[in-house]
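Figure caption, in words: inputs first, then the predicted bound structure.
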Amino acid sequence: MTPPLDLLLRNVRIVTGADDACAVSPPSFVAVARGRIARVGTMQTLDAGVAAHDEIDGGGALLTPGLIDCHTHLVYAGDRAREFEQRLQGASYEDIARAGGGIRSTLRLTREADEAELLRQSAQRLQELMRHGVTTVEIKSGYGLSLEHELKCLRVARALGEQAAVDVRTTLLAAHALPPEFEGRANDYIDEIVDRILPEAVRLGLADAVDGFCDTIGFTLAQTRRVFEAARALGLPVKLHAEQLSNQHGAALAAQFRALSADHLEHVDEPGVQAMARAGTVAVLLPGAYYFLRDTTLPPVDLLRRHGVPMAVATDCNPGTSPTTHLPLMLNMACTLFRLTPAEALLGVTRHAARALSLHATHGTIEPGKWADLCLWDAEAPAQLVYAIGASPLRRRFHHGLEQPG
Ligand code: DI6
Ligand code: FE
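Bound structure (DI6 present):
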């Protein structure tokens, strides 16, 4: 027996995200039962007798999958506006990091904040993301950098998912930076991650994946490998901040571990891209960080395209290099700065972002069986979602079939 319909969205033009061109359908309908998409079809194929608990006439507006932000550092305290000023006066991001600022300054504030305060500050950012159409978000730890504080950050991430109408995937990023108590002893900190932090996060069910920062101001390839081996032994998928500031061959390592994604990639080379293609590793492009750091090395989008590596786009929401909660703005930047097409950009925050989180069986496209996570926009074509700088033409947002106030 077919279950009764909770929601019938009529007269919408759908970009399902299932085809690479992001074609716009003729006027169509989406029927939702138990939070999932039950049927999709053109208005001509809609039986006159179909009834649902809620019915909405979309007036011909554009319907897309709910947006997926597959790379954020949403849980942190304070901000880094002072460092922004220092950088405007000529200091580099690496200079500030080496002088004990950067990630470490956010570390201090995040450790000082209790769980309720951290939740309050992070929830504000999450609300902003949702206001711009996000229905699924990945949230990393990485500003606690000790057993106690990494677990605190992951608990906050889980709590955010429980209190807001959004799906949250958590990622343990203990290998984000070296905490001051391990100064000069990076390998000991890796031991701490591998022996204590990671197993405890897994035991408590707080981490869905494991990430690292492999770079000159982060961790070496060998240290990253140790973290990946530990993750694999515990059954967790990995991903990596790779080739952001220099080429450390992190993307190839990530691919060896069948990483879900390798992220940033400004300095990746062709062997790295080929390895990602073979492993099915998604390239997560982060134009907000590129812009904010006034980077000049573009990620090799043509190379990624040529090798058929799926590209996702995310905010990288973090206080140091990408203080933004505006995913549609990242679509604009991905096209303007990185030369993605509007269709590629949109797939980057829907189907490909779902793959980067291993959620592609249930999220990321408008197809029967998937969660009814949907955005209705005041737009007629995907290009309109992308081209206006900082606009947010979101009209309505649905999470698991329920409309959420904006
Ligand atoms: N790369 C980044 O862009 C962020 N983390 C990372 O590994 C920056 C984090 C910060 O500066 O606070
Ligand atoms: Fe990041």
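The mean pLDDT is 96.
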